[in-house]
Design a protein that fits this description.
The complex is a heterodimer of chains A (262) and B (275).
Chain A: H1 3-26, H2 37-40, H3 43-56, H4 58-90, H5 92-107, H6 114-121, H7 125-149, H8 153-161, H9 166-184, H10 186-203, H11 209-218, H12 222-250
Helix pairs in contact in A: 3-12, 4-5, 4-7, 4-10, 4-11, 6-7, 7-9, 7-10, 8-9, 10-11, 10-12, 11-12
Chain B: E1 8-20, E2 26-38, E3 42-46, H1 53-61, E4 68-73, E5 76-77, E6 85-88, H2 100-110, H3 115-128, H4 144-156, E7 162-166, H5 174-191, E8 194-199, H6 202-208, E9 211-215, E10 223-228, H7 237-240, H8 244-274
Parallel strand pairs in B: 3-8, 3-9, 6-7, 7-8
Antiparallel strand pairs in B: 1-2, 1-4, 4-5, 9-10
The chains are: A mainly alpha (262), B alpha/beta (275).
């Protein structure tokens, strides 16, 4: 399909969906509104709310807070995941001892940790960062662990025969291999960092996109809830786009076939 | 012969290699192998599939320890990795996250050469294997033959005294193999390292080597024959294959090898049925 046609069709979907929503929530069918405004609001009100947020500037503060929490959660979770993943992969005994506990903690739905984090770390950003970290950590950890374990034996032998010491093997073989596995899960882990931040805010905070949505919901302001959702998904798409750019730079050496996401 | 006066680069004395299997039985891959490669000599090992040719090579490389017997490298008993050897692997062994240039330069870099100098020499080696224009490609952007060329440059840039090659051109198509064979001979001719070249292709072995060593079918494979190749150097393997000495030797070795190949084939098909 030509690009332009595709773009037009994609736009058409949005236009039709919004038009239907607007019609069904404002024009009565057989004397009744199919989408009562109290529960569904309507696109015009939602758009007005979004415009109001941006024109008054209140949204920036919330966006920045959520962004900051996501970045911190991603950075701390990744750093921890890389270190522990490396350590476990190189020390199979340690990995074997900790294995059941790792599985146990990972099996826990992370949302139940939110109240504890709030209790421990307060209502500020750190309880949200902590929630995001628990999500990001495990994804990165498992990927790095796998990445180090699955280094090709031939490539390792080649490194040894070329004269690499254990430290040089670490730097030139294990490390790039682990990083490539970590980057292949970059979209997922960044996504989870945002999830952690937003869910944390939703469950108790004084700022952020999650807070905004939760506030609107508390006042039965459905337009506000939808507006928050739209801003949030635009925010996530932008972050995802940034991740794609980073990934393209970092994984140039990867065959295209291994890069079939998107 | 001139080679007689040369020091022995690689000597395997009564080398036995055994593996412990998953069910605790011991599998003897190679039994009491005696083999020596003189400095400057090109020796090819030929044998049926699964006879332990690569195992023998790994022993010479120090990647595997023999269960019994001694490995000597220039008269010194080998312990640990063979630091004098360069190893060209059968499977892809390039670092996929490094460009062709970085892959070739790495051997110098880890030995402590300044990066700029390492890159400059690597560029020279890429030129020598005909890939001067491909320096910035990553391995997945190269063809199988091109990857082998990079691998060859990667090994040779360190100037190892011994070159170990494990069916290096195995995965390539017939024409590319011949071209790679000639490239190898050209590069080897420049300084005549000791070469131990494993292959299952008898023609390739005769065309390249000074000596052809035949192994019996495994398990407990042994070295059962050793022939000197009477072809002149420097050689072109396209022409060597037309030489009547080539054919005579081929017939002679094949008479011995054929029985082993059939044995190996029978064993592997039995194993397949049993498994």
């Amino acid at each position: 399909m030509p690009r332009l046609t595709l773009l037009l069709l994609q736009l058409l979907v949005a236009v039709v969906a919004l038009a239907l929503w607007q019609l069904l929530s404002t024009v009565p069918v057989f004397g009744k509104l199919v989408l009562p405004p109290f529960f569904f609001s309507n696109p015009v009100d939602v758009a007005a709310q979004i415009v109001a947020w941006f024109s008054s500037g209140v949204i920036w503060k919330h966006l920045l807070i959520t962004l900051w929490e996501s970045i911190l959660a991603f950075a701390i979770g990744s750093a921890g995941g890389v270190m522990v993943g490396f350590w476990f992969a190189r020390q199979p005994k340690v990995a074997a001892v900790f294995d059941p506990y790792v599985k146990m903690v990972n099996a826990l739905p992370r949302v139940v940790l939110a109240p504890i984090f709030t209790l421990w770390l307060g209502l500020g950003i750190w309880s949200k960062v902590a929630l995001g970290v628990t999500l990001v950590f495990f994804i990165v950890f498992f990927n790095v662990y796998q990445g180090v374990k699955e280094v090709s034996q031939t490539v390792l032998d080649n490194g040894r025969m070329l004269g690499m010491s254990e430290r040089q093997l670490m730097r030139h073989v294990y490390w790039p291999s682990a990083l490539s596995w970590m980057f292949s899960s970059l979209h997922t882990s960044v996504g989870f960092a945002v999830v952690g931040a937003v869910v944390g805010e939703y469950l108790g905070s004084a700022a952020g996109l999650g807070y905004l949505i939760q506030q609107a919901e508390g006042m039965f302001d459905v337009a506000g809830v939808f507006a928050g959702m739209f801003v949030l998904s635009a925010f996530v798409i932008l972050i995802d786009f940034a991740v794609t750019l980073v990934e393209r730079r970092l994984l140039v050496w990867r065959p295209v076939a291994a890069d079939h996401r998107e | 012969m001139v080679q007689k006066a040369m020091p022995i680069a690689v000597a395997l004395e009564e080398a036995t290699v055994a593996f412990r299997l998953a069910d605790a039985r011991v599998y003897t891959a190679v039994e009491k192998a005696n083999l020596s490669v003189a400095h400057g000599e090109f020796v090819a090992i030929v044998g049926p599939t699964g006879c332990g040719k690569s195992t023998l090579l790994n022993v010479a490389a120090g990647l595997l320890k023999p269960a019994a017997g001694v490995v000597r490298i220039f008269d010194q008993p080998l312990s640990g990795l063979n630091r004098q050897a360069g190893y060209l692997f059968q499977a892809d062994a390039l670092f996929p996250w490094k460009t062709a240039l970085d892959n070739v330069a790495i051997g110098l870099e880890i030995a402590g050469a300044p990066r700029a100098q390492a890159l400059q020499r690597a560029q020279g080696w890429l030129g020598a294997v005909g890939l001067g224009a491909f320096a910035n490609r990553y391995p997945h952007m190269l063809s199988g033959g091109q990857r082998k060329r990079v691998g060859l440059a990667q090994v040779l840039i360190r100037d190892p005294k011994i070159l170990l090659m494990d069916e290096p051109f195995g995965p390539l198509d017939a024409q590319t193999r011949q071209i790679m064979g000639n490239l190898l001979l050209d590069l080897w001719n420049a300084d005549r390292k000791a070469v131990l070249f494993v292959t299952h292709d008898l023609e390739e072995a005769i065309a390249l080597a000074d000596r052809v060593v035949i192994m019996s079918a495994g398990p407990s494979a042994r070295i059962i024959g050793d022939w000197r190749v009477p072809l002149a150097r420097p050689r072109d393997i396209f022409e060597a294959r037309l030489d009547k000495d080539f054919h005579a030797l081929h017939r002679e070795i094949w008479a011995v090898l054929k029985a082993e190949v059939m044995k190996g084939y029978a064993q592997s098909s039995q194993a397949a049925e049993a498994g």
